[in-house]
Protein backbone atom coordinates (compact mmCIF):
# COMPACT_ATOMS: atom_id res chain seq x y z
CA UNK A 1 0.00 0.00 0.00
CA UNK A 2 1.26 3.45 -0.90
CA UNK A 3 1.31 5.97 1.93
CA UNK A 4 -0.18 9.35 1.05
CA UNK A 5 -1.28 10.12 4.60
CA UNK A 6 -2.01 13.81 5.16
CA UNK A 7 -1.04 14.70 1.59
CA UNK A 8 -3.34 17.26 -0.02
CA UNK A 9 -4.39 16.17 -3.51
CA UNK A 10 -6.02 18.66 -5.87
CA UNK A 11 -7.93 16.70 -8.51
CA UNK A 12 -9.42 18.59 -11.42
CA UNK A 13 -12.07 16.62 -13.29
CA UNK A 14 -13.38 14.06 -10.81
CA UNK A 15 -16.95 13.78 -12.00
CA UNK A 16 -18.42 11.31 -14.45
CA UNK A 17 -21.38 10.76 -16.73
CA UNK A 18 -23.84 8.31 -15.20
CA UNK A 19 -23.64 6.25 -12.03
CA UNK A 20 -22.57 2.91 -13.50
CA UNK A 21 -18.86 2.18 -13.44
CA UNK A 22 -16.14 4.73 -12.70
CA UNK A 23 -14.67 7.59 -14.65
CA UNK A 24 -10.92 8.12 -14.62
CA UNK A 25 -10.85 11.30 -12.54
CA UNK A 26 -13.34 9.86 -10.05
CA UNK A 27 -11.29 6.68 -9.65
CA UNK A 28 -8.12 8.74 -9.21
CA UNK A 29 -9.69 10.73 -6.39
CA UNK A 30 -10.99 7.61 -4.63
CA UNK A 31 -7.68 5.77 -5.03
CA UNK A 32 -5.64 8.67 -3.66
CA UNK A 33 -8.04 8.96 -0.73
CA UNK A 34 -7.69 5.24 0.00
CA UNK A 35 -3.95 5.78 0.32
CA UNK A 36 -4.59 8.51 2.89
CA UNK A 37 -4.69 11.68 0.80
CA UNK A 38 -7.04 14.57 1.52
CA UNK A 39 -9.02 15.31 -1.65
CA UNK A 40 -9.86 18.81 -2.82
CA UNK A 41 -11.55 18.73 -6.20
CA UNK A 42 -12.73 20.95 -8.99
CA UNK A 43 -15.35 19.91 -11.52
CA UNK A 44 -17.65 21.54 -14.06
CA UNK A 45 -20.74 20.28 -12.23
CA UNK A 46 -21.22 19.17 -8.64
CA UNK A 47 -23.97 16.70 -9.51
CA UNK A 48 -21.60 14.45 -11.46
CA UNK A 49 -19.22 14.22 -8.48
CA UNK A 50 -21.77 12.92 -5.96
CA UNK A 51 -20.65 9.29 -6.26
CA UNK A 52 -16.99 10.25 -5.85
CA UNK A 53 -17.54 12.35 -2.75
CA UNK A 54 -19.93 9.89 -1.09
CA UNK A 55 -17.56 6.98 -1.66
CA UNK A 56 -14.56 8.80 -0.21
CA UNK A 57 -16.45 10.02 2.83
CA UNK A 58 -18.12 6.64 3.43
CA UNK A 59 -14.64 5.11 3.63
CA UNK A 60 -13.50 7.69 6.18
CA UNK A 61 -11.73 10.07 3.82
CA UNK A 62 -11.97 13.81 3.35
CA UNK A 63 -13.29 15.31 0.13
CA UNK A 64 -14.39 18.82 -0.79
CA UNK A 65 -15.43 19.75 -4.32
CA UNK A 66 -16.02 23.15 -5.91
CA UNK A 67 -17.58 24.07 -9.22
CA UNK A 68 -14.67 24.82 -11.55
CA UNK A 69 -14.31 25.66 -15.22
CA UNK A 70 -10.94 24.09 -16.02
CA UNK A 71 -10.61 26.28 -19.12
CA UNK A 72 -11.03 29.58 -17.24
CA UNK A 73 -8.04 31.03 -15.40
CA UNK A 74 -10.07 32.90 -12.78
CA UNK A 75 -12.08 29.78 -11.98
CA UNK A 76 -8.98 27.60 -11.62
CA UNK A 77 -7.27 30.25 -9.50
CA UNK A 78 -10.32 30.40 -7.22
CA UNK A 79 -10.13 26.63 -6.77
CA UNK A 80 -6.42 26.72 -5.96
CA UNK A 81 -6.87 29.66 -3.58
CA UNK A 82 -9.69 27.83 -1.79
CA UNK A 83 -7.55 24.72 -1.40
CA UNK A 84 -4.70 26.77 0.03
CA UNK A 85 -7.04 28.63 2.39
CA UNK A 86 -8.37 25.31 3.69
CA UNK A 87 -5.21 23.21 3.82
CA UNK A 88 -2.23 25.54 3.40
CA UNK A 89 -0.47 23.38 0.83
CA UNK A 90 -0.90 21.28 -2.31
CA UNK A 91 1.16 18.09 -2.48
CA UNK A 92 -0.44 16.41 -5.48
CA UNK A 93 -2.13 17.78 -8.59
CA UNK A 94 -4.04 15.52 -10.97
CA UNK A 95 -5.44 16.95 -14.20
CA UNK A 96 -8.12 14.67 -15.60
CA UNK A 97 -10.14 16.82 -17.95
CA UNK A 98 -10.72 15.76 -21.53
CA UNK A 99 -13.21 15.34 -24.32
CA UNK A 100 -12.92 14.40 -27.99
CA UNK A 101 -14.65 15.68 -31.09
CA UNK A 102 -14.36 14.05 -34.52
CA UNK A 103 -12.86 15.79 -37.51
CA UNK A 104 -9.80 16.26 -39.67
CA UNK A 105 -8.14 19.62 -40.42
CA UNK A 106 -10.26 20.19 -43.54
CA UNK A 107 -13.63 19.38 -41.98
CA UNK A 108 -13.20 20.63 -38.42
CA UNK A 109 -14.42 24.15 -37.69
CA UNK A 110 -12.15 26.65 -35.98
CA UNK A 111 -14.56 26.81 -33.05
CA UNK A 112 -14.32 23.07 -32.47
CA UNK A 113 -10.53 23.19 -32.79
CA UNK A 114 -10.31 26.02 -30.25
CA UNK A 115 -12.67 24.33 -27.80
CA UNK A 116 -10.72 21.06 -28.07
CA UNK A 117 -7.46 22.85 -27.34
CA UNK A 118 -9.07 24.58 -24.38
CA UNK A 119 -10.58 21.55 -22.69
CA UNK A 120 -7.75 19.11 -23.40
CA UNK A 121 -4.62 21.28 -23.26
CA UNK A 122 -5.29 24.72 -21.83
CA UNK A 123 -6.86 23.05 -18.80
CA UNK A 124 -3.50 21.40 -18.04
CA UNK A 125 -1.59 24.65 -18.51
CA UNK A 126 -3.96 26.62 -16.26
CA UNK A 127 -3.81 24.07 -13.46
CA UNK A 128 -0.02 24.03 -13.57
CA UNK A 129 0.15 27.81 -13.99
CA UNK A 130 -1.58 28.32 -10.66
CA UNK A 131 -0.18 25.33 -8.73
CA UNK A 132 3.49 25.29 -9.75
CA UNK A 133 4.45 28.46 -7.82
CA UNK A 134 2.97 26.90 -4.68
CA UNK A 135 4.81 23.62 -5.11
CA UNK A 136 8.05 25.40 -5.97
CA UNK A 137 7.78 27.42 -2.76
CA UNK A 138 7.15 24.19 -0.82
CA UNK A 139 10.12 22.64 -2.63
CA UNK A 140 7.98 19.56 -3.16
CA UNK A 141 5.05 18.30 -5.16
CA UNK A 142 3.90 15.77 -7.73
CA UNK A 143 1.81 16.61 -10.79
CA UNK A 144 0.20 13.86 -12.86
CA UNK A 145 -1.51 14.74 -16.14
CA UNK A 146 -3.86 12.37 -17.94
CA UNK A 147 -3.08 12.11 -21.66
CA UNK A 148 -4.22 9.41 -24.13
CA UNK A 149 -2.78 6.92 -26.59
CA UNK A 150 -4.44 9.18 -29.17
CA UNK A 151 -1.47 11.44 -28.48
CA UNK A 152 0.92 8.64 -29.45
CA UNK A 153 -0.66 7.17 -32.57
CA UNK A 154 -3.70 7.20 -34.83
CA UNK A 155 -6.36 5.04 -33.21
CA UNK A 156 -8.81 4.48 -36.03
CA UNK A 157 -10.93 7.60 -36.27
CA UNK A 158 -10.23 11.22 -37.26
CA UNK A 159 -10.06 13.40 -34.15
CA UNK A 160 -7.09 15.54 -35.05
CA UNK A 161 -7.57 18.24 -32.41
CA UNK A 162 -7.80 15.66 -29.63
CA UNK A 163 -4.74 13.84 -31.03
CA UNK A 164 -2.78 17.07 -31.11
CA UNK A 165 -3.76 18.22 -27.64
CA UNK A 166 -3.01 14.90 -25.98
CA UNK A 167 0.38 14.73 -27.70
CA UNK A 168 1.13 18.28 -26.57
CA UNK A 169 0.44 17.31 -22.95
CA UNK A 170 3.30 14.81 -23.11
CA UNK A 171 5.80 17.40 -24.30
CA UNK A 172 4.45 19.94 -21.81
CA UNK A 173 5.10 17.43 -19.03
CA UNK A 174 8.63 16.66 -20.22
CA UNK A 175 9.70 20.27 -20.62
CA UNK A 176 8.09 21.51 -17.41
CA UNK A 177 9.49 18.57 -15.43
CA UNK A 178 13.02 19.60 -16.34
CA UNK A 179 12.38 23.25 -15.52
CA UNK A 180 10.96 22.49 -12.07
CA UNK A 181 13.16 19.54 -11.08
CA UNK A 182 15.52 21.83 -9.08
CA UNK A 183 12.47 22.97 -7.10
CA UNK A 184 11.60 19.47 -5.95
CA UNK A 185 8.52 19.28 -8.17
CA UNK A 186 7.88 16.22 -10.34
CA UNK A 187 5.65 16.08 -13.42
CA UNK A 188 4.59 12.89 -15.15
CA UNK A 189 1.81 11.68 -17.42
CA UNK A 190 -0.42 8.64 -17.48
CA UNK A 191 -1.53 7.58 -20.96
CA UNK A 192 -4.71 5.49 -21.00
CA UNK A 193 -5.61 3.27 -23.91
CA UNK A 194 -9.10 1.97 -24.70
CA UNK A 195 -10.76 2.09 -21.30
CA UNK A 196 -14.22 0.95 -20.23
CA UNK A 197 -15.67 3.93 -18.36
CA UNK A 198 -19.08 5.64 -18.33
CA UNK A 199 -17.77 7.84 -21.16
CA UNK A 200 -17.52 4.72 -23.32
CA UNK A 201 -21.31 4.63 -23.59
CA UNK A 202 -21.39 8.14 -25.00
CA UNK A 203 -18.66 7.21 -27.48
CA UNK A 204 -20.69 4.20 -28.57
CA UNK A 205 -23.74 6.38 -29.10
CA UNK A 206 -21.71 8.75 -31.28
CA UNK A 207 -19.54 6.38 -33.28
CA UNK A 208 -21.24 2.96 -33.38
CA UNK A 209 -24.26 1.95 -35.43
CA UNK A 210 -24.36 -1.46 -33.76
CA UNK A 211 -24.83 -0.44 -30.14
CA UNK A 212 -22.74 -0.47 -26.98
CA UNK A 213 -22.07 -4.22 -26.79
CA UNK A 214 -20.70 -4.44 -30.32
CA UNK A 215 -18.73 -1.25 -29.79
CA UNK A 216 -17.03 -2.83 -26.77
CA UNK A 217 -16.31 -6.06 -28.67
CA UNK A 218 -14.64 -4.08 -31.43
CA UNK A 219 -12.51 -2.17 -28.95
CA UNK A 220 -11.53 -5.32 -27.09
CA UNK A 221 -10.47 -6.90 -30.37
CA UNK A 222 -7.98 -4.07 -30.84
CA UNK A 223 -6.22 -4.77 -27.54
CA UNK A 224 -3.47 -7.43 -27.44
CA UNK A 225 -4.55 -8.41 -23.91
CA UNK A 226 -8.05 -9.00 -25.29
CA UNK A 227 -9.97 -6.62 -23.07
CA UNK A 228 -10.34 -2.97 -22.26
CA UNK A 229 -8.89 -1.58 -19.08
CA UNK A 230 -10.88 0.42 -16.59
CA UNK A 231 -10.50 3.61 -14.60
CA UNK A 232 -8.83 1.81 -11.69
CA UNK A 233 -5.97 0.71 -13.93
CA UNK A 234 -5.29 4.36 -14.68
CA UNK A 235 -5.82 5.46 -11.08
CA UNK A 236 -3.29 2.94 -9.78
CA UNK A 237 -0.63 4.38 -12.08
CA UNK A 238 -1.54 7.90 -10.97
CA UNK A 239 -1.27 6.97 -7.30
CA UNK A 240 2.17 5.44 -7.84
CA UNK A 241 3.48 8.53 -9.60
CA UNK A 242 2.05 10.74 -6.87
CA UNK A 243 3.73 8.76 -4.10
CA UNK A 244 7.19 8.81 -2.55
CA UNK A 245 7.91 5.47 -4.22
CA UNK A 246 8.20 7.43 -7.50
CA UNK A 247 10.43 10.12 -6.01
CA UNK A 248 13.12 9.74 -8.71
CA UNK A 249 10.72 9.65 -11.65
CA UNK A 250 9.95 12.87 -13.51
CA UNK A 251 9.26 13.90 -17.08
CA UNK A 252 8.00 10.41 -17.91
CA UNK A 253 4.83 8.70 -19.07
CA UNK A 254 3.21 5.44 -18.02
CA UNK A 255 1.18 3.93 -20.84
CA UNK A 256 -1.80 1.92 -19.58
CA UNK A 257 -3.13 0.35 -22.77
CA UNK A 258 -2.99 -3.45 -22.67
CA UNK A 259 -0.24 -3.43 -25.28
CA UNK A 260 -1.89 -1.45 -28.11
CA UNK A 261 0.94 0.98 -28.71
CA UNK A 262 3.50 -1.82 -28.62
CA UNK A 263 1.69 -3.75 -31.35
CA UNK A 264 1.26 -3.41 -35.10
CA UNK A 265 -1.72 -3.97 -37.33
CA UNK A 266 -4.25 -2.80 -34.78
CA UNK A 267 -6.31 0.38 -34.97
From TrEMBL:
The answer to whether keyword NADP applies is yes
Q: Name one GO biological process term.
A: fatty acid biosynthetic process
Residues making up the signal peptide according to the UniProt record: none
Determine the domain of life of the protein's source.
Eukaryota
The record's listing under Gene3D superfamilies reads: NAD(P)-binding Rossmann-like Domain
Instruction: Give the Gene Ontology MF terms in alphabetical order.
Output: oxidoreductase activity, acting on the CH-OH group of donors, NAD or NADP as acceptor; quinone binding
Q: Which Pfam families match?
A: adh_short_C2
Sorted keywords for this record are: NADP
Q: Which SUPFAM superfamilies match?
A: NAD(P)-binding Rossmann-fold domains
Return the InterPro entries for the record. Answer: NAD(P)-bd_dom_sf, Sc_DH/Rdtase_CS, SDR_fam
Q: TM segments?
A: none
The record's comment on protein family reads:
Belongs to the short-chain dehydrogenases/reductases (SDR) family.
Name the chain's protein: Related to short-chain alcohol dehydrogenase
Q: Which organism is it from?
A: Fusarium torulosum
